[in-house]
Design goal:
mainly alpha; 445 residues
């Protein structure tokens, strides 16, 4: 394959991804989908009030969300005006720019063919396309994460390349300023590097230390800002993890599992009596008019976390089984999560509820979504991981992201969108599995 042909294929894949994302934005009427708090923060930044959720004086500062996505929204609004459509179209561009980064990661980690196929799979996957139409940080986060992993893969293969460790750490720091749980990622990387049996282990540990330091330096100014305002250490954001954690510890008698497998969407009367802080959290986040009260309910977070810990101490096995039961909702999707956003008439129904009132179209759609977006890609991904087992240490930067996403969200809250930034790395293993399966089939012929 000539250089011009490679460039042509790459541009074609990127164009397909861009057009599909533009199509989502053009045909969808999804301007109310997402976290409107991001927009409130962005508008306040743009108007010179600082990073605050309030819409009137005294404009008290907040740390309820990481800062980078609101800054991105403010930047787009500054250029194009306060209109969501330019923001969504800018996210289609960011999503399309992630595609060649995925190609470069695949080429660096395995082969050019793997990179091209992985980039194509990412370009056509519906979930990364969908989030270009939402006020969620997934698109920006995925782009920064892919850039960081590209340099991390290069440095992992050449651990004496200190510049690569610095660049990857800086980019990972920027990604963490988009989604706060990522600040714990260096801990996983340190453990992987420490237990990995390979040559130049000392250089690898030194490189991971450089990575951690550079990432920490990026986070430091924001952490200092939070300490100045709140007199406590908040590395990135104080996103009510205590309350969300407590919700995951509720048992079946405290919410109706038939309505939804996760309690967070349900507000039974028992909440008002037993968990008033959860009711207040729902009130604040469900209506932008209540965003002024965000700092007020932050005081309940530690109390909620303590309640959750006590509930786990009483029934640890039940809690563990419930978290395992919810884990498939992070990775295995049948289209239900997407459908409820596309059409508000479609409830977040379970399979059991769906078969109680059979709907042939819905069952067919969900089965197709399950097969095409989960079973086939993950089946080939497992094959790809198996084929790479003898040199799995070289692929740890890729493998670490799906592992980290899973570990970071099991104790707290699980939604399908949380796995989206890890899709590029899973799909690269899918590409490895598909190319190996094709090669094996060709040999048999």
């Amino acid at each position: 394959m000539t250089r011009k042909t490679k460039i042509g294929y790459g541009l074609a894949v990127m164009a397909v991804g861009l057009l599909l994302r533009i199509l989502w934005v053009s045909l969808s009427q999804l301007s109310d989908i997402g976290d409107l708090l991001y927009e409130r923060l962005a508008v306040n930044i743009l108007e010179g009030h600082g990073f605050t959720a309030m819409d009137a004086s005294p404009f008290a500062p907040t740390a309820v969300r990481p800062p980078l996505y609101p800054l991105w929204i403010a930047f787009v609004y500054f250029i194009f005006g306060q209109n969501l459509m330019p923001l969504f179209y800018s996210q289609t561009v960011l999503g399309a720019l992630t595609i060649p980064i995925v190609y470069l990661i695949g080429k660096e980690a395995h082969s050019e063919k793997t990179g091209l196929l992985g980039a194509f799979l990412f370009a056509i996957h519906p979930y990364p396309q969908f989030y270009a139409t939402c006020l969620f940080a997934e698109v920006l986060y995925s782009f920064l994460l892919a850039c960081a992993i590209l340099f991390l893969c290069k440095a992992w293969k050449r651990p004496d390349w200190s510049k690569g460790w610095w660049i990857s750490g800086i980019l990972m720091g920027l990604a963490a300023l988009t989604r706060s749980e990522l600040f714990l990622y260096p801990l996983l990387l340190i453990m992987l590097a420490f237990f990995l049996k390979r040559e130049k282990k000392f250089l690898l540990m030194k490189g991971v230390a450089i990575f951690s330091i550079s990432m920490g330096l990026v986070l430091l100014p924001w952490t200092v800002r939070n300490f100045v305002h709140y007199k406590k250490v908040i590395p990135i954001s104080d996103s009510f993890y205590g309350m969300i954690f407590m919700v995951t510890t509720l048992d079946e008698t405290e919410y109706d599992q038939k309505q939804h497998p996760s309690a967070f969407y349900i507000q039974p009367p028992s909440y008002a009596a037993n968990y008033p802080m959860i009711v207040k959290m729902f009130e604040v986040f469900s209506d932008p008019k209540n965003f002024n009260r965000i700092n007020e309910i932050a005081a309940y977070d530690r109390q909620a976390f303590a309640i959750g810990v006590e509930k786990i101490k009483k029934t640890p096995i039940r809690y563990l089984l419930n978290r395992i039961k919810e884990l498939p909702y992070l990775w295995i999707e049948s289209g239900n999560y997407l459908l409820q956003f596309i059409d508000k008439r479609i409830p977040a129904t379970s399979w059991g509820t769906l078969f109680d009132k059979p709907d042939v179209w819905m069952i067919s759609w969900k089965l197709m979504g399950l097969v095409l977006t989960s079973l086939i890609p993950y089946g080939f991904a497992l094959l790809g991981i198996w084929r790479c087992r003898h040199r799995l240490g070289d692929f740890l930067p890729l493998l670490s992201l799906p592992v980290f996403v899973t570990l970071a969200h099991i104790p707290f809250w699980i939604e399908a969108r949380y796995a989206v930034p890890a899709y590029p790395f899973v799909l690269l293993f899918t590409a490895i599995g598909m190319t190996n399966a094709r090669a094996a089939t060709a040999e048999q012929r």
